[in-house]
Amino acid sequence: MNEISSKVPFRLKSAIAFLSIAVVMQVYPLAITSGSVPGTSVETIQLQSKLVNATLPYNVILPADYRTAKTTRYPVLYLLHGLGGHYSDWLTRTNVADYATHYRMIVVMPEGNDSWYVDGAAGSNDKYESYILKELMPDVDRRYRTIQARYGRAIAGLSMGGYGAIKYGLKYPSTFAFAGSVSGAFGVTRYTEKEMGGASWEPFLKIFGPVGSETRKANDVFEITRALTPGRIASLPYFYFDCGTEDAAQHFNPNRELSGIFLEKKIPHEYRELPGNHSWQYWDQQVKEVLRIAAERLRVPKTPGKLSHR
After folding, report:
1. CATH 1.20.1260.10: does it fit domain 10-308?
2. Distance (Å, rounded) from C-alpha 127 to C-alpha 30?
3. What pLDDT, on a 0 to 100 scale, did the predictor assign at position 267?
4. Bridge partners, 181 (sequence order)
5. pTM of the prediction?
6. Strand-pair category, 106-110 with 76-80
7. Is CB count within 10 Å lower at the N or C end of the chain?
């Protein structure tokens, strides 16, 4: 699998490869099984949110040995759905539950509605970013034997969820060791009524406000990245993102643009352009890669007080 298409200059390919390799040498891989392990289980939790003023469900994939390895704590991957979708999409439209059997890792798939995973510009009950960080994650840590530290936490998503995951990685480097995106909608803060369509425009304005609003500026991944200082960059998680070469220009071009800015800022990351479009067929294929890379970036304890670096 090529890391980036032939349309991109070799110098760009080499820079991405260099940044990827430079970081690979500094991490401790998660213990990975040699084959599929039967027995993973799925749970659905209903969480009452004060920040969103609603009951929001989330699905959880538990490792095969979760019920038997009672002293083991596990890393967590938070997997965000896309616009127009819901928390159940990952389980019903991809084989993520099967793919997850290869890794001793908890996978959490929260409900984000069409929030773009931001604290909205209008209203006090549209605080999805705060919900994820201040209500969902603590609830997961209370209910399950998680590694409650940066090295045990990753976040990723598709389209809207990919945007949210990369933005969280940039904004909260002390929270996540890995942030990943598949077909990320990174240009969202530039959208006008033309990109969103008539029926979606008013709800979109309630979230981001008009073009040039403070909410848009605060959630613009390009501006957030450009403003990073060297010290801040040194603390960032590892980033992975990809996009299909047949995806719409409003998705494809911003992905390439963001990778270019990452290269300018010397932010370690891996960016791939692959055959495919904005579809579940593409996302089902690429979520396997997200799981694999997330597993390489996380650590799992072998016994209380000790970490396995297998």
Report:
1. no
2. 33
3. 98
4. 157, 241
5. 0.86
6. parallel
7. N
Closest CA to 257 of 202, 186, 175: 186
Q: Which of 147, 163, 178 is nearest to 63 (CA)?
A: 147
The rounded average pLDDT for each run of 10 residues, N- to C-terminus, in the chain (310 residues) is: 35 41 32 45 97 97 94 97 98 97 95 96 86 99 97 98 99 98 97 83 91 94 98 98 96 98 98 98 98 90 43
Tell me phi and psi for residue 237, to 5 degrees: -75, 175
CA angle 114, 115, 117 (to 5 degrees): 130
Tokens in use for 74? Answer: 């596990």
Structure tokens that stand for 254 in this block: 């911003």
Q: Which residue has the tokens 């389209």?
A: 159
- How far is the C-alpha of 78 from the C-alpha of 132, rounded, in Å? 10
Q: In 3D, which of 202, 203, 125, 112 has the Cα closest to residue 164?
A: 112
Question: Three-class SS of residue 11?
Answer: helix
Any idea where the domains of the chain sit in the sequence? 10-308
Place of tokens 């990351």: 269
Token pair of 232, please?
């801040």
